[in-house]
């Protein structure tokens, strides 16, 4: 659904500063809408992981918790893979299906 | 209106005016210019229009409209009972059915309440087709006043990060007030910069804000020259921005208008017209 206006404006290159503007805006607005500044979001993420880690062992290298917006509604989307436990008899059952990842272009950078 | 007698037998009297508030959050994006031009554009197509400047203490709409020398009473005089509503309505020279109720210059926003605005709009509703309210910048009392009677809210923004952020804030506030979904006017679009990828495109902005668009107004030097003269450019032909404002007026009246048919050397608008118009 990119680009009705892109075509209208004959915009070809995607390298201009407008790309940066759009990324920054999306990041700013998603935080504005839930009234949670980025620093607090980081704290919240750390706390969520801490709680989850109390119960299961998390593959912390591949955790992805980020705010996204769909239309005007903000979502917290978390992808938290678990460490595979060698002892567990039903190995594949311990890894739940991750939530459907969204288009990475829409995802605000976590840092 | 009573001030404009002789309309006996008009079939339009049964209709109720649509109250349209022009707002933005951020200052300086072209709210007042937009309000003036949309009002004039509606009057040009024989709509009966009352414009209200809700920016108490910083009145400007009268100047942009070229009516500053004819103010006797203002909005606060009406609210405080020093004059009748129609005494505060300045009639435009060129358009006999275009009126302006100016803001007070020496008072502040607390002189008017949202309930006052609703009451004034209700008094006018049966006597005109459109009530256009020019909202002050910000999200405080003046904003509350301006949106209180609104049936439709138009948010003016520029293709620029801080203006879009403020527009988003306004959208959120309107959602919280359960207003009809606001529509967007993207003002001061520079087609050449968009083409180079150095300015947010209208699609970038609507994509980010997720609301409907009702106007794309190109950057146009004629905006400055026309406000110098107190003649909103929608009054005359031959300006790209003026055409964009006239298109907004027609969309407000419920017409399906392709996004601009005016041409410029680069062919920017020609292409827009082709795609929307399909002919």
Structure write-up:
- The complex is a heterodimer of chains A (111) and B (279).
- Chain A is an alpha+beta fold and 111 residues long.
- In chain A, β1 and β2 form a beta hairpin.
- Helices cover 37% and strands 13% of the residues of chain A.
- Chain A contains 3 helices and 2 strands.
- Chain B has 279 residues and is α/β, with parallel strands linked by helices.
- Helix content of chain B is 37%, strand content 15%.
- Chain B has helices at residues 31-44, 61-64, 75-79, 114-125, 141-147, 161-176, 191-195, 202-209, 222-229, 240-252, 268-277, and strands spanning 18-23, 49-53, 90-91, 98-101, 130-134, 152-157, 183-189, 212-218.
- Chain B has an 8-stranded mixed sheet with strand order 3-4-2-5-1-6-7-8, with helices on both faces.
- The longest helix of chain B has 16 residues, at 161-176.
- The radius of gyration of chain B is 18 Å and the shape is globular.
| CATH topology (fold) name of chain B | Rossmann fold
Which parts of chain B are unreliable, with pLDDT below 50 for 5 consecutive residues or more?
A: 1-13, 261-267, 273-279
Strand element count of chain B:
8
Strand content of chain B: 15-25%
Query: Would you tell me the structural class of the helices and strands of chain A?
Result: alpha+beta
Taking all Cα atoms into account, the compactness measure Rg of chain A is 18 Å
How would you write the strand order of the largest sheet of chain A? 1-2
- How many β-strands of chain A, per DSSP? 2
Number of domain units of chain A: 1
Strand order of the largest sheet of chain B: 3-4-2-5-1-6-7-8
Number of domains of chain B: 1
Helix content of chain A: 25-40%
SS strand fraction of chain A: 5-15%
| CATH superfamily label of chain B | P-loop containing nucleotide triphosphate hydrolases
Report low-confidence residues of chain A grouped into runs of 5 or more: none
Separation of termini of chain B?
A: 41 Å
Mean pLDDT across all residues of chain A, rounded?
Answer: 77
**Structural class, from secondary structure content of chain B?**
alpha/beta
Residues in helix, % of chain B: 25-40%
Shape of chain B: globular
Order of helices and strands of chain B: EHEHHEEHEHEHEHHEHHH
């Amino acid at each position: 659904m990119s680009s009705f206006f892109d075509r209208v404006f004959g915009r070809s290159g995607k390298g201009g500063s407008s790309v940066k503007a759009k990324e920054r805006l999306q990041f700013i607005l998603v935080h504005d809408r839930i009234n949670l500044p980025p620093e607090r979001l980081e704290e919240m993420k750390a706390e969520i992981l801490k709680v989850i880690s109390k119960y299961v062992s998390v593959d912390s290298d591949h955790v992805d918790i980020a705010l996204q917006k769909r239309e005007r509604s903000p979502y917290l989307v978390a992808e938290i893979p678990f460490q595979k436990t060698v002892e567990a008899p039903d190995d594949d059952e311990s890894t739940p299906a991750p939530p459907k990842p969204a288009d990475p272009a829409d995802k605000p950078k976590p840092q | 209106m009573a001030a404009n007698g002789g309309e006996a037998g008009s079939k339009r009297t049964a209709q109720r005016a649509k109250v349209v508030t022009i707002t933005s959050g951020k200052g300086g994006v072209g709210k007042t210019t937009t309000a003036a031009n949309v009002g004039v554009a509606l009057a040009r197509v024989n709509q009966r229009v009352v414009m209200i400047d809700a920016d108490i203490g910083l009145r400007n709409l009268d100047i942009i409209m070229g009516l500053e020398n004819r103010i006797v009473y203002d909005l606060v005089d009406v609210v405080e009972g020093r004059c009748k509503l129609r005494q505060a309505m300045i009639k435009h020279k060129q358009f006999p059915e275009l009126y302006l109720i100016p803001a007070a210059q020496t008072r502040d926003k607390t002189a008017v309440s949202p309930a006052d605005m609703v009451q004034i709009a209700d008094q006018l509703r049966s006597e005109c087709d459109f009530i256009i309210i020019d909202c002050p910048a910000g999200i405080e009392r003046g904003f509350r006043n301006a949106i209180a009677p609104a049936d439709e809210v138009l948010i003016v923004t520029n293709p620029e990060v801080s203006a879009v952020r403020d527009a988003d804030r306004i959208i959120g506030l309107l959602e919280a007030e359960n207003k009809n979904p606001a529509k967007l006017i993207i003002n001061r679009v520079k087609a050449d910069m968009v083409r180079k990828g150095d300015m947010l495109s209208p699609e970038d902005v609507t994509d980010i804000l997720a609301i409907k668009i009702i106007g794309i107004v190109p950057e146009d030097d004629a905006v400055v020259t026309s406000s110098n003269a107190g003649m909103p450019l929608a009054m005359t032909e031959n300006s790209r921005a003026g055409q964009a404002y006239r298109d907004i007026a027609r969309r407000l009246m419920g017409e399906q208008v392709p996004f601009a048919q005016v041409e410029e050397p680069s062919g920017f608008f020609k292409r827009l017209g082709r795609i929307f118009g399909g002919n």
